[in-house]
Design goal:
Elements lengths: L2 H20 L2 H18 L26 H12 L6 H20 L3 H14 L2 H18 L2 H15 L5 H17 L3 H17 L3 H17 L3 H17 L3 H17 L3 H18 L2 H17 L3 H18 L2 H17 L3 H18 L2 H17 L3 H18 L2 H18 L19
Helix pairs in contact: 2-3, 3-4, 4-5, 5-6, 6-7, 7-8, 8-9, 8-10, 9-10, 10-11, 10-12, 11-12, 12-13, 12-14, 13-14, 14-15, 14-16, 15-16, 16-17, 16-18, 17-18, 18-19, 18-20, 19-20
Length: 442
């Protein structure tokens, strides 16, 4: 940028700040309130309060003001900086914090969403207060901080147990169960899942019973109880079909496909993924369609059907970008980089890993950042850049250690040792282990 243009921007900012500070605090408050009102009017008037769900994070219908909600919140914060909020201002701030958080979730900006939901929780009352904290926990988990999510979920569970809404209690139990499962705490995780199952059966809530069964199936699979896992998945799938819940049935099919893949029944896995894709396309869920296409690509990748896998990875990336699913875009790019590295092109793989890592960092997706950074370190070793590789591995192991990803730390260290041996250098130091967690595909 030319120096004259820089000078203009500098002077413009000084003039703007000087003009702003000339306003009396009471006038600034009024101006910010007017600005917020003008944004509303330009986009069709006040937004509707979002119909929040404790189950479906991405299903809240969008509003024309969603992409401007954070700006309105900023104006409201500035307006309230000099004094106490009246009920109208408080309600406006709460409304647009919820809308901003829904928009951040939809755009996969989980760190922003977690903070916005937390602020909404602090302003809300009654059941909405618990719902906002639950949504903050879910966004925090997607951001890659499951320990903080666990603390928030326990807070929600403790508060909700004394209330009348046992369906909500069962939902929170399943969310907490899934979080604890990542830390290698199967006993408490299973106890929570069975409690949720008992509540749903007592209430004859077939949908939530099937959801709880599906979560228990994942736990059974991860703890080596394959027959129990398969039975629970199939029971869950039958229930979803009986109550005509095709989207949930598709999720169950996709999970069952992963179990088939894990146990070497690759044709069964492929059939289940294809059936799941058909359902996702019928219900128009492009987000989950893209994720399932990516999973099918991983299956082909594992079978060394590289050309077909690359075609599916490309299709998945197209869908992720179409729907704004940056998180899955970053994960898929990392998987593509892994396949290209295996094919003997570490230079191209490293460039794609860099793109994936940029997305993980943008979104705060520390789980996949740590996993893919370990693979990136191997690429750097293969390119003859050992010091950069050492730095990348140190960062990767630190991220994984902070998350308690014992499994990923162990596998990553084994891979980096082998890569160091091939490169003829002393293996990098091992990272200490903590708790277990599911590792991302590399």
């Amino acid at each position: 940028m030319p120096s004259a243009e820089i000078a203009y921007l500098f002077r413009h900012a000084l003039l703007r700040d000087a003009a702003y500070n000339l306003q009396l605090p009471s006038e600034r408050t009024e101006l910010h309130w007017i600005a917020a009102t003008c944004i509303e009017q330009v986009h069709g008037g006040r937004a509707n309060a979002p119909a929040l769900s404790a189950i479906e994070v991405f299903d809240t219908p969008p509003d024309a003001l969603d992409s401007h909600a954070a700006d309105i919140v900023s104006h409201m914060d500035a307006a309230l900086a000099g004094g106490k909020a009246d009920p109208k201002q408080r309600a406006t701030t709460l409304l647009y914090l919820q809308r901003a958080a829904c928009h951040s979730d939809r755009m996969y900006r989980s760190a922003d969403a977690a903070l916005q939901w937390r602020r909404a929780f602090e302003l809300a009352t009654g059941h909405l207060r618990l719902l906002c904290l639950l949504r903050s926990a879910l966004s925090t988990h997607r951001q890659g901080d499951p320990r903080q999510a666990e603390a928030q979920l326990r807070e929600v569970l403790h508060a909700s147990r004394t209330g009348p809404d046992q369906r909500f209690v069962a939902i929170v139990l399943v969310k907490l169960m899934n979080t604890l499962r990542e830390f290698g705490e199967p006993r408490e995780s299973e106890a929570l899942g069975l409690e949720a199952l008992a509540i749903t059966r007592e209430r004859e809530d077939q949908l939530q019973e099937a959801v709880a069964l599906g979560s228990l199936a994942v736990l059974y699979s991860e703890t080596g109880r394959v027959s129990d896992a398969e039975a629970a998945y199939l029971q869950s799938l039958r229930a979803f079909r009986e109550i005509n819940a095709p989207r949930y049935a598709a999720v169950a099919l996709s999970s069952l496909a992963s179990l088939y893949q894990l146990t070497g029944r690759l044709q069964h896995a492929m059939d289940a993924y294809i059936d799941a894709l058909k359902l996702f396309r019928e219900v128009g869920d492009r987000r989950l369609e893209g994720m399932t296409v990516g999973n099918l690509a991983i299956l082909y990748h594992g079978q060394q059907r590289f050309e077909e896998a690359m075609g599916l990875y490309d299709e998945a990336l197209t869908i992720h970008r179409e729907v704004g699913n940056r998180r899955s875009e970053g994960i898929t790019l990392g998987n593509v980089a892994g396949m290209i590295r295996e094919a003997g092109d570490p230079r191209r793989a490293a460039a794609i890993y860099e793109d994936a890592l940029a997305i993980h960092r943008e979104l705060g997706n520390r789980a996949f950042e740590g996993g893919h950074l370990g693979y990136y370190a191997i690429c750097l070793l293969e390119l003859g850049r050992p010091e950069e590789a050492r730095q990348a591995w140190t960062s990767a192991s630190s991220l994984l250690r902070k998350r308690g990803d014992t499994v990923q730390l162990k596998r990553g260290y084994e891979r980096i040792q082998e890569a160091c041996t091939r490169a003829g250098i002393t293996p990098f130091e091992a990272a200490p282990e903590t708790a277990a967690s599911e590792s991302p595909s590399g």
